[in-house]
Protein 1
Amino acid sequence: MKVLVVGNGGREHALAWKLLQSKQIEQVVCIPGNGGTASMERCQNVPLAVDDFEGISQFALKNGISLVVVGPEVPLAKGITDYLQAQGLMVFGPVRAGAQIEASKAWAKALMQEAGIPTARAAVFTEAAAAKSYVKAHGAPIVVKADGLAAGKGVTVAETLTQAEDAIDAIFQGQFGSAGEFVVIEECLIGQEVSVLALTDGLTIRPLLPAQDHKRIGEGDTGENTGGMGVYAPAPIATPELMARIQTEVLEKTIACLRAKGIDYRGVLYAGLMIAPNGDFKVLEFNCRFGDPETQVILPLLETPLEELILACVQQRLGEMPPISWKHGAAATVVAASGGYPGEYEKGKVITGIDSAEATGATIFHAGTKLNQQQQIVTDGGRVLNVTGIGENFKQAIAQAYAGIKYIQFEGVYYRRDIGYRVLSAE
Ligand code: AMP
Ligand code: GLY
């Protein structure tokens, strides 16, 4: 099989890497891919945009692509699956109607309320004055969310009424483009977050190992939010009892509700959950795709060949598959970021030490990197590399990731030194 992976992050490098471990996969093409996918054997980058559906479809049809795996949410929300399916291609990732579960927070909230899925109390507004009087009536802290895709920047956890009001103004003044036509205001939940990614063929839904990421830039989970500075799996907070409840109270209910709406959802359903100190949980958000960086710790632990699971989803026979099999132990990823991220940063810095880092046994998934004209790997984004360790336990996995990352050098490199502190102290 020749597989096409759409996207250019650490998630897509991990997907390509995992797919290439299978003898069934002859070649992986990444559109557009990054420096890591360009450097793997049997892997090739093609410089097309992720929303150039026509270009992607022509390439796939001309080059004998049997399966397209879509990484990011933007092309899914724009209907890449609908488009490529209409050309006769096999695609993993939900159709546009299904991707609304991530692309519209108001739509997702209505679905959760309709299906009786535990979630934060919320109200949706189409104009600022009503949103502000709701916020005044409920008080701070309170959470203000732009409705649509905002690259992770559309949510404000407001500690004060002024912050909440400013966030409402920013949204209605169009700072998030068409993401700002609605605002969702919801109660502020406390607890620990966990990411439960599940594979579904529209009928059956099976969770992958739960993962927990560190979203803040600074040690001790302080400072600005980022796309994720580190992650580990399986997250111990999601006990087997909790996972069983999430299966029936969230995942199965969601798929049933989507079906009732006539949406045949095949792909990843990712539930971001808040687990309260008393063990109760609520859904914060749904995503319609694999998580990044969660995928970089989940896939190294997956034993069942990934393409078998993906094909079972696309061909709607996930229910016939044996249980998903996992390696024993744990995985952890530490992210090496550009100095200044998540604010301004420079690109084009030459990266050295990747071979030495890999020689320690760590696995390196590239995110914001590319090959320059001299065939050097240079930085090309905020989150640059994901250094992943695997071990019998978190101590070993985290130690391997840190043993690897200390060889990584580029001007301004930054990484957190405390990834996994919660699980290490529990272990
Ligand atoms: P979302 O994109 O909706 O997951 O929001 C991004 C981040 O904002 C989440 O990962 C949480 O850290 C935070 N967040 C979202 N909703 C809430 C909430 N109701 N209470 C507290 N934090 C929240
Ligand atoms: N790790 C958060 C996300 O993929 O949305």
Note: The chain has 15 helices and 20 strands.
Protein 2
Amino acid sequence: MKKLIFVTGGVCSSLGKGIAASSLGALMEARGFTVRMVKIDPYLNVDAGTMSPYQHGEVYVTDDGAETDLDLGNYGRFTSAPLSRANSITTGQIYKTVIEKERAGDFLGRTVQVIPHITDEIKRRILVVADSPEVDITIVEVGGTVGDMESVPFLEAARQLIHEFGRQNAVSVHVTLVPSVSGGEIKTKPTQHAVKELQEMGIQPDVLVLRSKEPLDEGIRRKISSFTNVEMEGVISGHDVGTIFELPLVFYAQGADAFILKKMNVESRHAELGPWKKVVEKTKHPAAQVRIGIVGKYMELHDAYKSVWEALYHGGIANDAGVELVKIDSSSLESPAPDLDTILGCVDGILVPGGFGERGIEGMIVAARYAREKGLPYFGICLGMQIMVIEYARNVLGWKDAHSTEFRKTCAHPVVSLLEEQIDVKTYGGTMRLGASESITAADTGIRRAYGSETIVERHRHRYEVDNKARPELEKTGLKVSATTPDGSLVESCEWPNHPWGLGVQFHPEFKSRPTKAHPLFKAFVAHCVIHAKGQP
Ligand code: GLN
């Protein structure tokens, strides 16, 4: 029998439900079970692709080109569960499908309603994932907070599935907040109310993950257990930890995963936690330390470049180095005479991540020039690679007006321009060059050395591309095109000549990095930052 775990949240948002769900997934995998992860987002957008990073944080891209919630990135980092379009469900998708079916006459004669039509479509999508023959356990995270109006159909679908599967096959994990007020007194009331709210939806939680500052003692947990009908073994302290990678170990130490397996009548297996322990150990006690400057435009919001931060930490783990992130708003480099040695002189490497829109572009170009001229490791991702090309064209080739047609519709030297396939695209939402595709790396380049292979597969999300008309001149003056699409028509990476490590990629390697297996490009970049740090006086 297939097993389902529903993860919901109570009291307020941003409690780390995604990390809790991911940690449970990691533990189930560590015990040898085949796990799948599903995220439900109760907003009306069909996907996250059309939302501003300020609203929603990073857009995580899957191999099949879905533009999804950043929690899928957490699943990808904590588990090896494959992620695709099917693993991200939104209200927008559900209504779109049901309304399209209604227009096609699939429900002829009947009134189409939230229950059963919307809830049936939600259940169908969850089961598409869970019913795959190889899958043992499917973890479904319901976004939002129980009590929000828009979560109601999803909670009703979860209730029905728990009923249909039986509580021995489907469990509910509720993540709530246990705050402390002045004087340090711990308050259980918000959790009691949050559980009541879930019970009113017809769902009795089996496990509570209690988010708190400090570990919660047995007395508090017992009190919560007695008020909520959750067995004591299922009341788990989800206190703050030094690094999120510790959470699977914190859950394991309290027997959370063993208890869930017992509830689901599954015989427990040995948990292989060695790789997680190593990650925590390396994070807490690194041999070296590097400072990496990220020059981008969505700096105020940590989540906007979530996978990039995480991949840098992974690169640090792989190099036994602690990574300190220095967030630099690219606009701050645009004043007439910025003090670059003060702002950029203190970092051991610069990363310019992906982005859209003109604001802050000139500051990124300033940062790229500084890195190129000072021999500072530079890593450009997507927009960051396009910046590298514009800077090179302007300052090495002498094309002072070189630009991307994303920012200057008409300029004499458009070194980055719209992909041909994008010329007739008029709509937004899933219309960029999206998802995984192959690239071929050239021999004797930084990218080939990092991957150690000729063919690589990486995910894309862009509309613009190095203009092929500019390529011969750029290459003649030394810019190395070090990877292309297999037919050679699109530039996938370029590198500065005579530079320790100046590399830009048109794709997004950050989506495939894991704490237990850093992405080769992040590993190589951080390795060069470590060399730079050691060379400093
Ligand atoms: N705006 C650029 C493009 O569309 C870069 C996109 C990105 O960085 N993801 O090509």
Note: Residues 287-533 form a domain with the Rossmann fold fold (CATH 3.40.50.880).
Protein 3
Amino acid sequence: MQKEKIRLESGEIDLPKPLEQLSKNEIERKMYIAKVMTKTLSYLTQSFIENGFEWLLPVVFSKSTDPLWPDPGASIEKRIETEVYGETVRTTLSMIVHKIVASSLVMPKLFILSPNVRIEKRDRRFTGWHLYEFTQLDFEIRGANSSNVMSFVDSIIKGLIFYLKKNAKEELEYLNVYNSLSVPELPLKVYDRIWLEEKYGRDWEPFFKDDINEPAWVTNIPREFYDYEDFSTGRWDNYDLIVPKYGEILSGARREWEYDKLVRKMERDGVRKENYLLLLKLAREGKIKPSAGAGIGVERLVCWITGSKHVGEVQLFPKIPGTIYDL
Ligand code: ASP
Ligand code: MG
């Protein structure tokens, strides 16, 4: 695991190259990663469908998108807003607002493969873990609580690794990860963020990820208005899934649905209410239903599975912070 340490701490790694600069061996490696990606998406989408989820198509432009604020992990250099038909729209940072509305009004269980555009600060190119465009496998379940979502994720992660070890043996062997990739024991362990801060300090993630040998949950993370916060205890009913040596591959929460709390949190956090008019209107009318969900960073998941050094390696057209290629 020495390599990953270098990857994440020194910044001395080769950035993923554009396609036209790849050697024959590098193209072969891309192809094997692509096969793992295909099998991963096939397994996960099939699992969602078998569990009664509807498959929603993504959106690109909307008036409302994820504020990504306040979020301890966010580092956005620029927010894309543009004018279309005389209205201001934003490119999708995440489909969180759409998920809450869609699960409340139409589909009790839904998932989306959603492109997220997050113009990360350019110094994040060397973390090996950030992209300015990535795909989120985002899902939401009306009436669910955190433990429903966490045990569902436990089972699909375990099922996925089991499936890949059986059905992508050749690919994993080529990538030299077949033996090191182990089917995790369930339930995955759960840690409270407060405990991690006491142990490792405020910047706990880099230390924590190096100390675990199996994916693990972290709960109670203060962040955006849409995650449920218990005002009486100060606890946040949310969760991140951290994978060993890499970091966070999924974040999610039980959601706020009550108008008064949504407004109070937006005002407290300096989030502009005028960017969430429909959500607030529906909440005021009692049409937003309690739900819980999460989103999996697809490239991060496959980066971890394939033992890649930079998450951009699993993209055919790498979107590395600060680096624009032709395609
Ligand atoms: N997908 C996340 C969620 O479901 C939102 C995010 O992208 O941070 O909470
Ligand atoms: Mg979030």
Note: The chain has one domain: 10-314.
